[in-house]
Amino acid sequence: MLSALRNPTFRHLFAAQIVALVGTGLATVALGLLAWQLAGENAGAVLGTALAIKMVAYVTLAPVSAAIAERLPRRAFLVALDLIRAGVIAFLPFVDQVWQVYVLIFALQAASAGFTPAFQAVIPDVLKDEDDYTNALSLLRLAEDLEQLASPMLAAALLTVVSFPVLFLGTVVGFLASAALVVTARLPARAKAEPGHFWADVTKGIRIYTRTPRLRGLMVMEAAVAAAGAMVYVNTVVLVQARLGLGEEAVALAFAGFGAGSMLAAFLLPRILDRLEDRPVMIGGAALMVAGVALVPLVGSLAALIALWAVIGFGFSLTQTPIGRIINRSAREADRGSVFAAQFALSHACWLVTYPLAGWIGAGAGLSVAAISLAVIGAAGLAAVWHLWPANDQTILPHDHPELPPGHPHLAEHGELHAHAVVIDDLHRRWPKAA
């Protein structure tokens, strides 16, 4: 797994991701404390609204940001967004109204909606070898899981000696350090894209996504993952404190089980993907998540919950880590940023639906009904994946171009009936019927 770190550019980008993640984790803790300071017992409503604002920003702005990114130098775009994020966080300690929190959170997540897909699109350009890229994806997944464990502990340690607004300073430092590391990285030049209308570029990633069978399957799989994952993220605290009658430490242990399962999968995935194709691995991971959530009504102890959350976490990593590989083989280098942005927007649209569903059903009908309902949604999504993502998923496909005039350069290069690696582009606007 560590072989990807031999690449100096990836080392810089990986370090940038780590410091930004730690900063984000500190901000998460500080934001909760700020919400309590401003709203008291209504802090939960404030945080829930902030989470909804985050998802709306991701869903609506990621494709727009991708179109902007295509028109700007890669390094300058990433650094500018890191500086914007640092600037927004710097204002948070000084707010004294809830509406100010909402405005700043929207600005912060708008910048993240541009940064994350652009960052994801750089990695396969840096690591051309698929094994190195797979190792990099596992490392990045591992870093996210470790952040979820380490940042709360770091925040708790800092809060013994400083007040919570100082945590925001740590976030600012994290984003500034990320910007510095991106500046010092030797990023490959962006592939030249054809000049196009801005709004056509905004929708380009979605068009590619919806016209590529494996990406359509991935889109539905994200719905299944979000249905199962929402149960973990939304209802763990209720499961532990209401059903099991345990305290806050037990909540942390349950989430640690989820993180441990995800990290284990991240360690094992490079070897697994050497032996198996992405499709069965990802479907198997989603099935683990859905089955795990279906078993929630049977949980009667903390040990059982930790074990079950570890299984779901293992499945979560199996489904999420290989996504970059799927996108990498489904888009031209010039279109990759747009497709990563489409993935980012569509996946968060799923979470935007399942997060409130998990909370509303759990509060209104009980946790067991919520678990079964989300498992049914997830199972329906998995069934759709089998239909939308062909088991015989070939990259090189035989096809022809009856719409092209004789003598067209593409026909001159490949012949009338030909086969090559197919992606959706200006010459291949629909998936070949031969598939």
From TrEMBL:
CDD domains: MFS_MefA_like. It is found in: Cell membrane. The keyword Disulfide bond does not apply. Pfam families: MFS_1. The chain crosses the membrane at residues 12-39, 45-69, 154-183, 217-238, 250-269, 281-300, 306-327, 339-361, 367-389. Keywords: Cell membrane, Membrane, Transmembrane, Transmembrane helix. It is a multi-pass membrane protein. InterPro entries: MFS, MFS_trans_sf. It comes from the Bacteria. This is MFS transporter.
